[in-house]
Amino acid sequence: MDPFVEGSLEWSSLEESDLGQLAELRMALEYFDDPVQRLGLPELREHFHAPGANPGMDAVVGRDKGGTIVAYGWNRLHGSDVGEPQIWLDGGVHPAWRHQHIGRGIVEWQVARGQEWLDEAHAQDPAVCHVMLSRYVDEKFDGYARMIEGVGFTPRRWYFDMHAQFSDEWGHSQLPPVPPTDGIQLQPFHPELSEAVRRAHNEAFAEVPGVHAVSRAAWEHSMRRHAARPQWSWVATMAGEVVGYAMNCANVQDWDSLGYQEGWTDRLGVRPAWRGHNLGPALLIASMRSFLDAGLGGAGLGVDTINPEGALDLFESVGYESEEMVVLYGRELRADGASG
C-alpha cells in the first residue's frame, strides 16, 4: 500500500534503520503527554521482529523538511490459532506538528491498510472474513478519543493501571497473608510449564468478549521479551495440572516516571473450573513477595473489564490502588465479498 498519508510531511514505509529516530520521537511524545504505555528502542525492535510482523507494509513514518521523523503509524497483527485476527494500532504526532489533521490521516491510513490486509488474507483463506482493529487511548486524551470515534471506533474495554508501592521497611510480614487455596499448590514458574500455562491462559479468557486466544508463536515471543521475568512468575497446580498463573515482567522504561522500580503482573488468570479457591489473591501476593525479594519498590498490574463498576475489588483487597485508566477502542472490518 502506498505510504502516503497527507501532504504536509514526507511519508515512507518504516525501515529498521528508522527505529532510532522513532525511539526519539516516542521520548518526545512521552515527555509531553505522559502516557500510560511507554515504548523504548528495545520494545520497538521487538515489535519490528515479532512473528508475522511486516512493518515494511504495515507502518509508515512522516518526516519534516529536515528529514526528522515527526509522525508515525504502525499496524501490528496479533495472530491466533483460533478466532478472528486482531490488528493493534499504534501511532503518534510530535507536539509541534499537531492540530493539522495529521493524526486523523494516520488513523485513516491504518484503517485502509487493515482493510487491504484483510482482503488479501480472505483471498488466500475464505474463512478469514473479519478483523478487529484495536487502539488503546488514555482516558485523559479526550481529544484523541473524539477523533478516533469520528473514524468509526467505539469503546470496547476499560483498563485500569493499579500500583502498590512498598515502603522502605516492608518485608513479607507487611504483605497480606496468603489465603488458603484448598490444597491447590503455588509454585514458581518453570520453563517446562510454559505451554501448559499458555493453554490455561486461553481457557481462562475463552469466554471474555473481544479477547483472542494467544498462539504458541506469540506466547513464545512474549516469553523471550527483554521485559519478561519468568523468575518472578508463579503457577497454581493441582495434581501436576496448571490451574492458575501470574506471569510477571519488568517495564524498565516506566521506572523513571514512577520514581521507583516496579514488578508488573502481565498476565493473571484462573481456569473456570478452579475459581472460588482464592487463587487470584494468592498468586498476586506470591508475586509481590517475588518483587520484594528482587529488591523492587512496588508492584503493578493492569485490570481489564467490559464493566468498570466493581472490577477493582480483588486487587484493592491485596493493597493495589487505581491510578490511571486506558480505554480500548475497536472497529471491526469485513472482507470485501465475504458472506455471513
From TrEMBL:
Cross-referenced InterPro entries: Acyl_CoA_acyltransferase, GNAT_dom
SUPFAM superfamilies the UniProt entry points to: Acyl-CoA N-acyltransferases (Nat)
Domain N-acetyltransferase: 184-340
GO molecular function, one term: acyltransferase activity, transferring groups other than amino-acyl groups
Key words, A-Z: Transferase
Pfam families: Acetyltransf_1
Domain of life according to the entry: Bacteria
Membrane-spanning intervals of the chain: none
Signal peptide residues on this chain, from the entry's feature table: none
UniProt keyword Translocase, yes or no: no
Protein name: GCN5-related N-acetyltransferase
Organism (species): Luteococcus japonicus LSP_Lj1
Classification lineage: Bacteria, Bacillati, Actinomycetota, Actinomycetes, Propionibacteriales
